[in-house]
Amino acid sequence: MTLECAVCRSPLRAEDVDFELSLAKCHACNAVYNLTGRRPPSRPKAALPERFQVEEHGQGTTISWRWFRAYHVFMVFFCLLWNGFLFVWYFVALTHEAPLIVTLFPLLHTGVGLFLIYMTVAGFVNSTRIEVSREELRIQHGPLPWSGNRTLSGRELTQVYGQEVRGSKGSVSYSLLALDTQRRQVKLLTGLEAKEQALYLEQALERRLGIEDSPVEGELARRDQVA
After folding, report:
1. For residue 225, what pLDDT band results from cuts at 50, 70 and 90?
2. Antiparallel, parallel or unpaired: β 157-166 and 23-25
């Protein structure tokens, strides 16, 4: 039987294994783990989701995807309609010396309109980039500034898992979470569109972080239960 590294999947050489101590140290990524009771992986490898791009480089992996979807085109027209109405409102109010209340009344709508413009532009230009290695996990959204950028020590994370999130109006999205060495929940990503995205990221991150997969209460269905 050929053994392979649980982190980088490189074949283990004889000199990588200490049979007396049942320990292995991978020559490729230096991951160290116990071989006692080790069984070959039984879960199928998660499929690469649509739009995801993956680069393997030495001891790390980079996963990225663009935010753009077809509905962002619709949002362009919606923003034109919403903000066009506000432009006409202010034009009439300012040119006809309307009372102050008429000028102040649509301020909330103006804020919403500006937010919609920002979200729409971000949908066209932004992407998410995840860089993971044994030492570090980095998540970045850009180039337009967006919340959720974070850099974490890889050795402080003990488990990665996905969760389903249901909105008040029946919408469904998925989040990617982690547990640290104190068993505290760490939010990694929110707003994933498909269960397959969360499951793939869970598997890819655990592999590079050297984490042995184990059940977490409230997580998505196990990968071996996914049809």
Report:
1. very low
2. unpaired
Residue-wise DSSP of the chain? ---B-TTT-PBPPGGGEETTTTEEE-TTT--EEE-TT-----SPPPPPPTT-EEEEETTEEEEEEE---THHHHHHHHHHHHHHHHHHHHHHHHHTT--HHHHHTTHHHHHHHHHHHHHHHHHHH-EEEEEEESSEEEEEEESS--TT-EEEEGGGEEEEEEEEEE-TTS-EEEEEEEEETT--EEEEEEEES-HHHHHHHHHHHHHHHTPPP---TTPPPPGGG--
Q: 7 and 93 share a domain? A: no
Residue 54: C-alpha distances to residues 61, 67, 93, 204 (Å)? 7, 16, 53, 10
Together in a domain, 16 and 88: no
What dihedral do alpha carbons 142, 145, 148, 150 form, nearest 10°?
A: 70
Is residue 61 located within the same domain as residue 146?
yes
Q: Are residues 142 and 211 in the same domain?
A: yes
Q: Name the pTM for this structure.
A: 0.73
- Whether residue 53 sits in one domain with residue 132: yes
Question: How does pLDDT run across 122-179, given as a tens digit for each residue?
Answer: 999 999 999 999 999 999 999 999 999 999 999 999 999 999 998 878 889 999 999 9
Record the tokens describing residue 16, joined without a space.
């990588």
Residue 197, domain extent = 44-66+128-225
CA distances to 23, 24, 37 from 15, rounded to whole Å, are 11, 9, 20
